[in-house]
């Protein structure tokens, strides 16, 4: 079993809100930029979207870990953004966000997945982020899974260990 | 793009549990009251409900941001409370909670939404809250969206900025 | 109403990742073990599973709180792990994890529940945990609900109160 990670004392939080019409991923990026947050974990996210763009996996036995992602799904009607979780860190020097959301459409149906650019905030989006140290979480191409994956604790000066 | 928020050092957590029969929103309020938490973000919530009252949005093109909420839906059978996220802060001087939950009924069906008063805890409810400074998050009527919305960083003495 | 809990200053976070093929619950346990985390709350969890084992409740009016759990459901195809929340603490001296997940199968269908041993990480699993003090959260058989339940603040030397 491989387990990697780090522990952080005296945690910092970033709280914020996106207003109507904001592109969702760009808004999270702008909030992090303003408060100089490079790495972290999105642990609170509720509001609504007027447009959602997302994907999810399907089995592909010929792939390294047996999955592929569909081409983007686009929902052009408003959806309640029930909750979300995400990981934030640099990817080739730019801040990148791995974001998963649960949504609910106007009929109460489940919509969820890995979010892509093009989602638009409807009424509001309330965000809570656990702030991690700089360079503690970083995304890069991973040979094992053949995906771009966040790795932990690759370049840190914090209390840490790796199994 | 409008982005508002604040960053907080040395985060505080509130952990707690609600017991069977507790009204859900009142229980979160009582936990916050006991530990003098006025503002925060609910980031962990799992357990079960014996009754759920909730709503979600539907398109209403004549409204400011194009949505309305349905009249309450009521589920009178037990449901697994899979997870929840929420925002806590004062609204006209009283603590208010914006709470979104994902539930699963006895057939494994998705139920989710914006929770309303009248939900009852079944076996247990385990809660984790990120505590924000007093007066850092506040709910009031928002002209832009025409909803009562939590705003961030309106009256604070903490390290903060607004775009 | 019964409400129990505790508040903690200067929060610690544990961030980490599980790699392909890792048994999910064992991986979380190993991450906690490595960083000496006995109690906490899982508040961020996103990735994918190649196998999922889970259950959820159904009504059982003859039981103490009116519910029972189904025998395990097993999903043998890959699923997006949209998000998860969990509680971590000792149960009879061993670390135990109460874990609820939202998943999405290859058709975008909702799958969720109380996770059981046997889940296998597919491409990755990114984890964020709020670390609670030792002995602050503990699982034991609960007479009221007739389930094994996490209780808060039973043996602590931290700032705390109980209603």
Please outline the helices and strands:
Three copies of one chain form a homotrimer.
Chain A: E1 3-8, E2 12-18, H1 24-34, E3 39-55, E4 57-59, E5 67-69, E6 73-75, E7 79-91, E8 94-104, E9 110-115, E10 120-132, E11 137-142, E12 147-152, E13 160-162
Antiparallel strand pairs in A: 1-13, 2-10, 3-6, 3-7, 3-9, 3-10, 4-5, 7-8, 8-9, 11-12
How would you describe this protein?
The structure is a homotrimer of 163-residue chains. Chain A has one helix at 24-34, and strands spanning 3-8, 12-18, 39-55, 57-59, 67-69, 73-75, 79-91, 94-104, 110-115, 120-132, 137-142, 147-152, 160-162. By secondary structure, the first copy, chain A, is mainly beta. In chain A, strand 7 and strand 8 (94-104) form a beta hairpin. Helices cover 7% and strands 60% of the residues of chain A. The mean pLDDT of chain A is 93. The N and C termini of chain A lie close together (9 Å). Chain A has 1 helix and 13 strands. In chain A, the strands form 4 sheets. In chain A, strands 2, 3, 6, 7, 8, 9 and 10 form a 7-stranded antiparallel β-sheet that branches. In chain A, strands 1-13 form a two-stranded antiparallel ribbon. Chain A has a two-stranded antiparallel ribbon with strand order 4-5. Chain A has one domain: Hypothetical protein, similar to alpha- acetolactate decarboxylase, domain 2 (60s Ribosomal Protein L30, Chain: A, 2-Layer Sandwich). Chains in contact: A-B, A-C, B-C. Chains A and B meet through strand 2, helix 1, strand 3, strand 7 and strand 10 of A and strand 1, strand 3, strand 4, strand 7 and strand 8 of B. Strand 1 (3-8) of chain A pairs antiparallel with strand 2 (12-18) of chain C.
């Amino acid at each position: 079993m491989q387990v990697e990670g780090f522990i952080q004392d005296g945690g910092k939080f970033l709280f914020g809100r996106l207003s109507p019409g904001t592109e969702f991923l760009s808004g999270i990026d702008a909030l992090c930029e303003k408060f100089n947050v490079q790495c972290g974990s999105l642990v609170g996210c509720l509001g609504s979207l007027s447009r959602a763009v997302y994907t999810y996996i399907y089995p592909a036995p010929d792939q390294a870990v047996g999955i592929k992602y569909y081409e983007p799904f686009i929902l052009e009607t408003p959806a309640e953004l029930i909750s979300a979780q995400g990981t934030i860190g640099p990817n080739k020097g730019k801040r990148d966000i791995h974001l998963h959301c649960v949504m609910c459409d106007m009929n109460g149906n489940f919509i969820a997945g890995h979010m892509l650019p093009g989602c638009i905030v409807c009424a509001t989006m309330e965000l809570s982020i656990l702030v991690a140290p700089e360079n503690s979480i970083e995304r890069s191409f991973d040979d094992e899974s053949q995906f771009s994956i966040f790795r932990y604790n690759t370049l840190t000066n914090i209390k840490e260990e790796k199994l």
